[in-house]
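Reviewer comment 2.1 asked that we show a complete input and output for one of the modelled complexes. We chose the adenosine monophosphate case, as it is the one discussed in the main text.
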Amino acid sequence: MSKRIVLLGPPGCGKGTQSKLLVEKNQFIQLSTGDLLRAATNNIQSKVGQKIKTIMGEGKLVPDNYVIDIIINKVSELKNRNIIFDGFPRNIEQAIFLDDSLKDVSMKLDYVIFFKIDYEVLENRIKKRIEESNVAEQRSDDNLETLSNRINTYKKSTLPIVEFYKDKGILFEIDGMEEIENVYENILKIIQ
Ligand code: AMP
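Response of the prediction step:
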């Protein structure tokens, strides 16, 4: 049976790293709205593309209609696959939208994995990510000023989703400060 999981947590909590492991070892498909938005805006000079880039550079949320457009086609293409939603949903409206669109194609979310992590740890991780990446792969929003905006956006818009999924009985917390391998094992215990 295919599984659909959401990885939920602040920027730098390890969602991307864990997604990669689940893709490599467990036949998941990763749907990262951040990656999809970066890919969609990288080569376009249109006003809309520029506007989205600016919003991302400020660490704010891109308006729901753009994000939803980008993700909706993918979901229906991947009907019988294991899917990880990485960075989506990021607010209650998106969470409701995801529920409704999965229902429309007779699918549902199985697990929401919530990464608990101290905010000070995030700053150090992002600093490390900046140091270790080469210029070509550096993200324009990986800087300490944008990080603090991204964390504020997360607290204000994304954290309320935790209660939404708790009420549905599909929220599972994990300690995002453990070693990568342990976090991965803990995720497997939840989803297997
Ligand atoms: P990420 O790669 O997940 O850290 O996302 C990078 C940036 O893309 C975020 O700071 C937002 O500006 C934008 N973004 C990604 N996913 C979403 C989403 N679900 N809703 C709105 N904006 C998003």
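Strands lie at 4-8, 28-32, 82-86, 111-116, 171-175. We note this here for comparison with the apo prediction described in Section 3.2.
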